[in-house]
Amino acid sequence: MFLSKNLKFLREQNKRQSQESLANALGITRSAVSSYEDGRAEPKLIVMNRMALYFNVSLDQLLNVDLSSISESELEQQRENKKYTTAKNMRVLSITVDKENNENIELVPAKAAAGYTTGYADAEFLKELPKYQLPFLSKGRTYRAFEIAGDSMLPLQSGAIVIGEYMDNWNQLKDGTIGVVVARNDGVVLKKIFNKIPERGTLLLKSTNISYSAYEVPADEVLEVWRFAAYISKDFPEEGSSLSELRRAFSRLEDELREVKLVQNS
User: Fold this and answer.
1) pTM, whole model, 2 decimals?
2) Which residue ranges make up each domain of the chain?
3) How far is CA 102 from CA 120, 131, 143, 144, in A?
């Protein structure tokens, strides 16, 4: 682990902060800071977590990455990425409530999806959306419903209503989570989500329909993420993909492999 080395590096990088000053900020003694930096003792998890929060790095970085080997610009970029996953960029969610002060589930119809990317935080915009209460959902959470369009997430058909649970901390997103992503330039999409923010500052979005290519969305363009909770549809989902969809997918794969070979041979 790099804890002792990183602690000293971060403290000295922070305007050559003294051990006494850091100890006061962390609520520990100066001698404890000294022993941690020298590797003579290891702090408890709660203290390590305070250190990570204080220096605005992840706990994993504090323990397992030699931060002195990372350039200042790279470290700052990683700190910026961390803001997106933990909502430190102050994402504000607007909601509406019923007469008994229960949160409504607003429905975003497909025809209103384009307007939602600009009106998502506007209370007046939300007031105009249809509103529902669904008693089978877990209490104490915030939900929103979206009408999906297209066939990129088979077996769900176009016109199905997907109910999403709001996620303010994207670190809780497990790779492969299905959810609704609201992005400034890409609109409202239902996809399988892979968190690439720590490495590339993006969310990787994949379709269940193999006819569609995966793509990445910069984290600073993502406005909201809603984890799949349930869906409502008038049509019974069909299993599998049609033969024509498989043919299109393999054709696209052949084209992509051909491009790779051309690049390698050039």
Assistant:
1) 0.63
2) 3-70, 105-239+246-252
3) 19, 12, 12, 14
